[in-house]
Amino acid sequence: MTERTCDATVTSTIPITSAGSTYRVQHTGSGPLSTTVAIAISDCVGVDSMEFQLYDYVDPDSLDALFDPLRDATDGRRGWVELHVLGYDVSIHSTGEIEIRTQEPTIPDTSR
Asked: CA dist 32 to 1, 5, 21, 95, Å?
């Protein structure tokens, strides 16, 4: 099996076990942000990083291109993308921060 690596720092190791839990990773390298995102999701969710395919949810090249000019955010521009992957909300920020949260359950409106 080929192992993928990325240059990132895990800033929170809280396991995602309940609603409201957040797993954070900071992309710190010169490699593709999309690789860090894919590995962070696979680590957090507990799926093999070679079996999980980020492109089933977003085009990795487009994600990299979207944030490449904003990587250092020195011009004051900020942005983020939110994905829904395998039952988790994944926020990818222009600063390189990646947040993975459990999706909040929706409560049906029974007042009608």
From this structure: 21, 11, 26, 13
